[in-house]
UniProtKB/TrEMBL annotation:
<keyword id="KW-0408">Iron</keyword>
<dbReference type="Pfam" id="PF00005">
    <property type="entry name" value="ABC_tran"/>
</dbReference>
<keyword id="KW-0472">Membrane</keyword>
<dbReference type="InterPro" id="IPR051535">
    <property type="entry name" value="Siderophore_ABC-ATPase"/>
</dbReference>
<keyword id="KW-1003">Cell membrane</keyword>
<dbReference type="InterPro" id="IPR003593">
    <property type="entry name" value="AAA+_ATPase"/>
</dbReference>
<feature type="domain" description="ABC transporter">
    <location>
        <begin position="7"/>
        <end position="243"/>
    </location>
</feature>
<dbReference type="InterPro" id="IPR027417">
    <property type="entry name" value="P-loop_NTPase"/>
</dbReference>
<feature type="region of interest" description="Disordered">
    <location>
        <begin position="251"/>
        <end position="271"/>
    </location>
</feature>
<dbReference type="InterPro" id="IPR017871">
    <property type="entry name" value="ABC_transporter-like_CS"/>
</dbReference>
<keyword id="KW-0547">Nucleotide-binding</keyword>
<keyword id="KW-0813">Transport</keyword>
<dbReference type="GO" id="GO:0005524">
    <property type="term" value="F:ATP binding"/>
</dbReference>
<keyword id="KW-0410">Iron transport</keyword>
<protein>
    <submittedName>
        <fullName>ABC transporter ATP-binding protein</fullName>
    </submittedName>
</protein>
<keyword id="KW-0067">ATP-binding</keyword>
<dbReference type="InterPro" id="IPR003439">
    <property type="entry name" value="ABC_transporter-like_ATP-bd"/>
</dbReference>
Amino acid sequence: MTQSMGIHVEGVHFGYPGRPVLRGVDLTVRPGELTALIGLNGCGKSTLLRLAAGLLKPDRGRVRLGGEDLAGLSRRATAARAALLHQSAPSVPGMTVRHLVRQGRYAVRGPLGMLREGDDPVVRRALRDVGVEGWADRDVDALSGGERQRVRLAMALAQDTRVLLLDEPTTYLDLHHQLDVLRTVVRLREERGLTVVMVLHDLAHAARFAERIVALRDGRVVADGSPKEVVTPGLLADVLNVAGRVGSDPEGGWPVCYPDHPLPEPEGSRK
């Protein structure tokens, strides 16, 4: 990887039969930027990541990585440009850490190349950079939730892409492992020059670790800027549907939220 790659979402609409999800999203993520997507469940955050990873195709509009329209690329070619860490993954009985991380090389090595034994330098670096090389021969199912998430992050890094997409990477983790994963992502972004977009439910984590926050509501971008610009009592109310206050961390200066109570659901939001 020689330079970071930007993401360009241009007028994107996407939905399922009878259920529109994204309703005209325009978003540019600059090369090397770390952006957090926030919003209520169902607002389109994960769908937007899947579109950026080439797993879904827009109904209208287009998504470009660098200057290339994903509509013109194969799934394997897209996987060589952007790695997506899904929110959850199925169990992998009998698979070691080493073999799971090697799965990230599929886009480069192809089905025949995956039959060859042995790790290439990219796999070894991914294991080392995430700090799991000492677990390489352990079964993935024997690891804790936090340890498995680090291994899955190493698998994403093994794709050796310039764009890293993370769908709720801290889900189901305790606070210790949440901070561990997020600090690792920040470090890897700096060391590797990655462009990172991550979906986060915890606004406190987004405000602390991201340099930019994009808020979605009802399939549209409704706020976009630095944490200090975006995280306000109005955002809590309009986007997350809670009343609360916002202060400032006395040491780091990032916004700190104090949610007080949920607000009534908007008329027509119940289905």
